């Protein structure tokens, strides 16, 4: 299965990183979003982030220029339909993702592979609403996408072997490493990472430690590159809460109960770095 063109739906934090790594790996990328400013910002950010790699001698100036020329943007979702591979990286809400796939269906080529960068939503359920559940799977990148080595590949109940093998080959071409996961709530990374972050919020909520002491404990005591509360701010507290809810609902176990303090921060609109306020104040 020859994949050369890639459609990325959603130009936010994950979508722009995904467009970045595919363009650098030689793929033709069409990036789409409903918001024109999001597309403009994404191109500026990709340019800045690849420039960072040029400055550090990891990418040549010629490769940067070639990668940038391989990225096109559009406000028209249908224009990504003819791509060989489509990666949905829109808001982490099932209704939004379903609507995108439904709108795309009439524009797809028969061989097009559909994937979702969802961090926790059922791949099998998303796939069942399309005309090609056998060519549908989870394709979950980590943030920041250009830096993180791992990609989770998630097999829906109907994903066929040809699609599965083709996506493993794509991950190799990106120079990343795939972790294979079965389709259960939050897959592997977030099944383990989010309860840890939630527990860190409980540790704060119960007054066991301060934000600083909790983060320093994990950074200096367990060699994590970021403390769990700093990481929660980086990921987005709304995303952390949404994933905890998927775990809690999907696995029906009280050990996944979201910490009330996490819920309160989200209700306050303190979502972390993106709103300039979370466990830390970025204003
Ligand atoms: N694009 C390109 N390069 C980038 C970049 C970006 N967006 N962000 C950082 N970099 C590069 C830097 O240029 C630097 O490169 P060199 O190694 O060549 O010097 C390198 O990454 C490290 O960056 P910094 O020196 O600026 O900062 P740092 O050393 O503090 O590292 C970090 C920053 C990579 C984010 C590090 O703190 C880290 O690994 N944090 C943990 C991140 C993590 O756990 N991510 C997963 C979140 S979970 C997830 O994504 C799944 C989900 O569904 C929620």
TrEMBL record:
Belongs to the 3-hydroxyacyl-CoA dehydrogenase family. Pfam families: 3HCDH (PF00725), 3HCDH_N (PF02737). InterPro entries: 3-OHacyl-CoA_DH, 3-OHacyl-CoA_DH_CS, 3-OHacyl-CoA_DH_NAD-bd, 3HC_DH_C, 6-PGluconate_DH-like_C_sf, 6PGD_dom2, NAD(P)-bd_dom_sf. It comes from Pseudotabrizicola sediminis. This is 3-hydroxybutyryl-CoA dehydrogenase. It comes from the Bacteria. Keywords: Oxidoreductase. One of its GO terms (molecular function) is 3-hydroxybutyryl-CoA dehydrogenase activity. PANTHER family: 3-HYDROXYACYL-COA DEHYDROGENASE FAMILY PROTEIN (PTHR48075), 3-HYDROXYBUTYRYL-COA DEHYDROGENASE (PTHR48075:SF5). Its EC number is 1.1.1.157. Residues 187-282 form the 3-hydroxyacyl-CoA dehydrogenase C-terminal domain.
